[in-house]
Design brief:
alpha/beta; five-stranded parallel sheet; NAD+ nucleosidase activity, cyclic ADP-ribose generating; hydrolase; ADP-ribosyl cyclase/cyclic ADP-ribose hydrolase; 3 domains; 58% helix; elongated; Arc Repressor Mutant, subunit A; two-stranded antiparallel ribbon; receptor; 340 residues
């Protein structure tokens, strides 16, 4: 692909951004100076020669501009060329900043695509990746304490994002630090804040309304098999900050049994836990989520959480709690055999 001049690239971006506005170029070309007209014509000519666009002129303005395939792909080409000259540190930082900018736009109301749950999942994934990035590269950075402090807050907390994003932006402007980090190999951190080793075999994620009619019994069945469980009813102690302890539990569990019912839907903390576990599973590529549908159908699940619907479920109506506990024990044994 032919490399464009900076000016032609800017015009190409302008064309793509405004291709749904039929009268844009007529207005754009009104009252141009001779120099501006000459520059625009030169850029359009360059784009046409490069096969990026097709152009037709009339009365001093381009009445027809069609972006060709290479034109749409050029932005990806530029990014690939830029990434080829970047260190791994710079690539990871650029990715975090780009995704952070999209989160910022959504928080400001400039982006509205996707559901609230999908947005929550993206934010949780971003926070996870920022924490991984922090442990890989920023242990000696001047803003490390500010970053570490912000990471202690829940991902959905606007305060945390408002503190984190400017710190990361400042890193991108710190040329001395970037030069220092080029070529430096830090220890590999597993893909989900793995500074914490699994302390629990399973985290029981559920709605409080389902405790008495199902989850209490399931917890008891798991405990009978000697399985280490994070269950808020038994894991939280007097005086604990329950939000912090639950978030800690999500990070320290090998598996997550998610009891999904109508009571689970649209609850802040159940969906927060689900977002955390989906993020971990997507990042490390290892089975983590074990969904149980409770008094709902798989159709209900697919409608509410499409990202979970492709994960094999079991139905609480078809298995006893003791049977579910045995099924989980088999999953745990398989995992232990794989690791050994």
């Amino acid at each position: 692909m032919i490399k464009l001049s900076k000016e032609a690239y800017q015009v190409l971006q302008e064309i793509i951004e405004n291709e749904d506005k039929p009268d844009y170029w007529e207005k754009r070309c009104t009252n141009l100076t001779k120099r501006e007209d000459s520059i625009l014509r030169g850029c359009l000519s360059e784009l046409k020669r490069s096969g990026m666009v097709s152009v037709r002129w009339t009365d001093g303005y381009p009445y027809f501009i069609q972006v060709n395939k290479d034109g749409y792909l050029y932005d990806d080409y530029v990014k690939e060329q830029k990434r080829a000259s970047m260190s791994q540190f710079e690539i990871e930082l650029a990715d975090i900043l780009e995704r952070g900018e999209n989160i910022k736009k959504r928080k400001n109301g400039d982006m509205t695509s996707g559901s609230a749950f999908e947005a929550e999942l993206r934010i949780q994934e971003w926070f996870n990746d920022v924490e991984i990035f922090y442990h890989k590269y920023l242990g000696e950075y001047v803003l490390r304490d500010k970053i570490r402090y912000a990471l202690q807050y829940p991902a959905r907390d606007d305060y945390a994002f408002m503190k984190l994003f400017p710190c990361l932006t400042s890193i991108a402007k710190d040329k001395d630090f970037i030069e220092k980090m080029k070529g430096i190999q830090k220890k590999i951190v597993p893909a989900y804040q793995a500074k914490m080793l699994p302390e629990y075999d399973v985290f029981l994620s559920h709605a409080n309304a389902d405790k008495e009619n199902f989850v209490d019994e399931l917890s008891a069945s798991l405990e009978k098999l000697g399985i280490r469980i994070f269950y808020d009813k038994t894991s939280l102690e007097w005086g604990d900050n329950w939000k912090d302890r639950i978030l800690e539990g999500t990070k320290k569990a090998e598996f997550a049994i998610i009891v999904i019912s109508e009571n689970f839907f649209d609850r802040e903390w159940t969906e927060k836990e689900l977002a955390e576990f989906l993020s971990r599973q997507n990042r490390n590529g290892q089975k983590l989520i074990l969904p149980i549908i409770h008094n709902i159908t798989n159709g209900d699940l697919r409608k509410k959480y499409p990202s979970v619907a492709d994960i094999q479920t079991i139905d609480s109506q078809k298995y006893t709690c003791d049977e579910i506990a045995l099924l989980f024990a088999r999953q745990l044994i398989k995992r232990l055999k794989m690791e050994n």
